[in-house]
Each structure stands twice: as C-alpha cells, then as structure tokens.
Amino acid sequence: MLLEGKNAIIYGAGTVGTAVASSFVKEGARVFLAGRTMATLEDARERVGGQVEVAQVDATDEQQVNAHADAVATKAGSIDISMNVISDTDVQGTPMIEMTLDDYIRPVITAVSSKFLTSCAAARHMIKQKSGVILALGGSVERNPSMHDYNFGGIQVTFDAVESMRRQLSVELGRYGIRVVSLRTSGLVESIPADYANRDMILSSIIDQTLTGLPATPQDVGNVAAFAASDWARTITGTEINMTCGTAID
C-alpha cells in the first residue's frame, strides 16, 4: 500500500474530502478528518470506514488549527500529509463589475487564510521529522484562452494566490524534506450543489472544454492525491499535477 504507516490530516469533509480520505485509507493511511460541521464529519467517517478520526475544526481559525495539529502529532507520532480541500465559498457566473466586493474577495480570503494556517501548522511538525507532504487543490486556468470569456468572479485570483503560496512553501520547506504539490482540475461537477446559481453554465464550461468530455471526479482527485502523497512521487514538488483532462495543455 502506498501510504502504509502514514498519518494524514484532511481539512474538509465534503465530497472531495471524503473521496481523498477514502483513497488514503485504502492505501493504508491513518486519517484525521477535520471540518466545521460534526454531522458532516460523522457522515464522512461512516462512508469511508477504516482508520478515520474526526474533529470539529474551523480551518480559518488559527488557534483551532494549531491545537488540532498539535493533538494529532502527539497522538499519532507524526503528521506526514496535510491536505486542505475546504470550500472556497466562491460565486461564479456573474460579471465582475456586477459583483459585490464581499462576493469577489471572499474566496481569496478564505483560501489564503485557511491554506496558510493549515500548511504552517503541519509544516512546524514536518520540519522536526524532516519529511512530509502538503497538498492542495489549485492551479491557474489562465493559460486556456477559451476560459477568459467566462465569469469566474474571484476564484481565478484565488487559484493564482494559492499557486503563489505553493511556490513559496516548496522553496522554503524543501531543505527539510517537505514536498508541496497542487492538484489542478478543470472543475469538479460533483462538487457543485444542485441549487447553485448558474450551475448549468458552470457544468457546460467544465465538461465542454476538456479534450475527453470526461472531467476529473472527486475519486480521481483522491487517487492522484494518494499517489502525490506517497514515496512514489518523491521527486515531485514545487509544481502542480495537471488533472484537467486537456483543458490546460502546457
């Protein structure tokens, strides 16, 4: 198994977090699943099974994040993997000039704050053990010209900010044997709520711009995350793994 003996913290118990937790457990990891809503966490634990422990943690609260990471490190003996997949609470499908500042900037603040806090909390323990992997969903879509006409709101700025953080972290932490990797998708159909505004437009954008017509699923993210967190990917850091099904061709 790819992750046997590894201890992983996953922030976010929604569709993606549950899929990642499932893949990690199948590959032998002990998973500590953290999120804001206990009912969601309990549901995720039941669906995943295996070595999963849950804790109510607000990933944007510094004290809660640090206390939880310290508790995991003490209980498990190490933090080998940290992955943040909480919702960015973004609004898409509305032209930028018609958006409120709050709607535009909220995903940037949420993503940067939570990924800063969770990454730093894990890294402080990883530095001591001279190893570890920090993963996040991210990746810019700006290299695909067809995406420029779409009304992304603040999510594009969010992705760019997360990628900038990934580059900085990978350089600063590499000397300690810590890898930092982003998983880049073209969007996840399953993660868009049925009642989300402009849902049909977003779905069409995600699906139509892939080369295969089959965008990544949450389970795909989980499987690739398990690989990226394993020693099989030990040479991969400071970069993104392209899971866009051809939406972004480098």
Automatic annotation (TrEMBL):
Statement: the UniProt record of this protein carries the keyword Thylakoid: no
Top-level division of the source organism's lineage: Bacteria
Alphabetical list of Pfam families matching this protein: adh_short_C2
GO MF entry, a single one: oxidoreductase activity
Keywords: Oxidoreductase
Keyword DNA-binding: no
InterPro entries: NAD(P)-bd_dom_sf, SDR_fam
Protein family: Belongs to the short-chain dehydrogenases/reductases (SDR) family.
Protein name as annotated: 3-oxoacyl-ACP reductase
Organism: Kibdelosporangium phytohabitans
